[in-house]
């Protein structure tokens, strides 16, 4: 993914051989050189984390069905009785005094952010954080799920229009002899200012009290590419929506992680539309992740589900697992989070279905993609970065080859991988993927070995080439 334009080389007289080599080097490492480094992973050097955020503990408590979650690097149940988890989700009623209108139109905590006390909200939010995340050394995901309103006036459409209506009423009651246009503008300004203060203030509180956690809002960034029924649907984020996302710089700059969602519908099962939908949502998140004032790109953790949005117990097919989890890994996301609600555990039958899905299709696929991501990271980045598809639209995935690997299911719900890569497969990885290095590491492994051989045999000091100073994401060499 290209970043800001790179500076042009000065015009000096150099030997022809050196000029040719420099030209090739610039082409090969352009994207890595211009791109901010990635934030170090939460867990070791795991380039693609699998996270669990569903109440599966109820299967044990209610139905005596034990389901292993060992294949997930980090886990947490969204049930309020659980605290101290490394995946913690804050619903509307669990973090401060979040203002909203319920489905009956009754205001809760003032209804509108401009009609609620930010100070009281933050005071209670501090207590709620201490309760749900007691450890000050918390190193997990802290996800705030506030979905009743959006911080931008123009995005509060359909059911959310109540926030615009009530904001107008508040202004009309406070001011006399104002025009409709003035009411609209004042209402918009006050709503957006207060919404920003609530969201930004809550993130600031979270990052101050639990600074090692990754804080962000569920569903953000949103691409708003939901028109999947459109003819020739491409999934591209509408230009207007990308521009609105750019205007939320204050939100991205206050976050320490992004949590976009890939909830797909059953009536598009196995459809290329699901691929387009997911791909563009992840790409939009990755684009915005590089725009903050931080020296690294914010990590993107994609929220997905076991099943389809409109039928929770109809689990994703192999193709749709690739369209969501596989696509996220190939594009360079830091990981994924599987979310679910109590419907998954409402009966013994449902618990058995979830267990079977985890023990076979889903478990095998997660093992496949996370192991392939690690192998690629080791090969191209020496474990100091994650592999990213060179062409974002190419049908290339971080998968173990069927011919050389086997994934075995173990009795305890874990999996064993047997096999190794061939030389041709290693070359194919290098051709299709590049390395996005972690903080403290720079450079991309130059997979074109003959070119590297030319440089090292030519008598040039490699350290003279700034773009190769930390070749292969390695920071140990002293130049």
TrEMBL record:
Presence of the UniProt keyword Disulfide bond in the record: yes
GO CC, any one term: cytoplasmic vesicle
Gene name of this polypeptide: LOC107698280
Disulfide bonds: 59-351, 223-237, 376-387, 381-435
UniProt record similarity statement: Belongs to the glycosyl hydrolase 56 family.
Signal peptide: 1-34
Listed name of the protein: Hyaluronidase
Active site annotation, chain numbering: 147
Native source species: Sinocyclocheilus anshuiensis
Keyword Cell membrane attached: no
